[in-house]
Amino acid sequence: MNRPLQYIAKIGQYPFYWPMNVTIIFLLFVFGTPYYQITFWVLALSFLVFAINNIYTANIADHQSNREKYKPRRVPKSRKAIYEEADLTDQEIHFFRSEMAEALDTIETILGYENYNTHLNMVFKRYDISKVLKSYFQAITQAPDRLNQATDFLYHVLPNLKGALEQYTAINQAMDKSPRKIQKLTNLREEIADLAQQAQSSFDSFTNDPE
User: Fold this and answer.
1) Local confidence band at 12 (pLDDT 50, 70, 90 cut-offs)
2) Contact yes or no for 159/199 (Cβ under 8 A)
3) Residue of 138 and 210 predicted with greater confidence
4) pLDDT above 50: residue 39
5) What b/e sequence results for 115-138 when a residue is b if at least 16 CB atoms lie within 10 Å of its CB, and e otherwise?
6) Residue 194's CB: how many other CB atoms inside 10 A?
């Protein structure tokens, strides 16, 4: 999926998207397409490239921004004291910041589904998912030497929660309203709720057991 988007985004870097537009004009002209249809397709596809390029670029910028926050070569002074207190080596700092950057990307993706529809919004609010994920993330960043105590949250809860939300939205977009679809959505909401409870339980354990 990313490769086609990258290709379209690359086209969007050219003035007037000329590689695409020249090709379209040539092909349509060869097939004897009327000028007004050629104009329509050029404008329509140019707008599509413009929109996709902006969305793709913004998305990449967000991910790069998250990774910049935890880039090992640019450790903020406020973080250095925490790493020194935890007695981490440079290699351990690099690993920790890389893992937290990945976790932050996943958390932001998850939170992007909060207002997808009323059903998901209710689940998010009932289990206070946004607060739990953000608080847990902050707690881990303040205790880098305890990363191993948060492995279940980082490598099980977060990726599975993201996956369940992606499945939910994909199934929900289907046009049919069959009982099977409704049951699948119900099952996924229950899975999301269960993962949210696991996150809360893991967070409580992490904060109540500082050593």
Assistant:
1) very low
2) no
3) 138
4) yes
5) eeeeebeebbeebebeebbebbbe
6) 15
Domains for the chain: give ranges and CATH numbers.
Answer: 7-66 (no CATH), 77-208 (1.20.5)
- Contact at 8 Å (CB) between 100 and 137? yes
Cα 194 to Cα 7: distance, rounded to the nearest angstrom: 39
Residues in the chain: 211
| Residues whose CB is less than 8 angstroms from the CB of residue 68 and which lie 6 or more positions away in sequence, other chains included | 74
pLDDT band at 163 (very low <50, low <70, confident <90, very high): very high
Burial class (CB in 10 A: 0-12, 13-18, 19+), 150: buried
Task: Please check the confidence at residue 29 and state whether its pLDDT lies above 50.
Answer: yes
90-111 helix and 129-141 helix, angle to the nearest 10 degrees = 170
pLDDT band at 24 (very low <50, low <70, confident <90, very high): low
DSSP assignments along 48-80, one per residue: HHHHHHHHHHHHHHHHHHHHHHT-GGG--HHHH
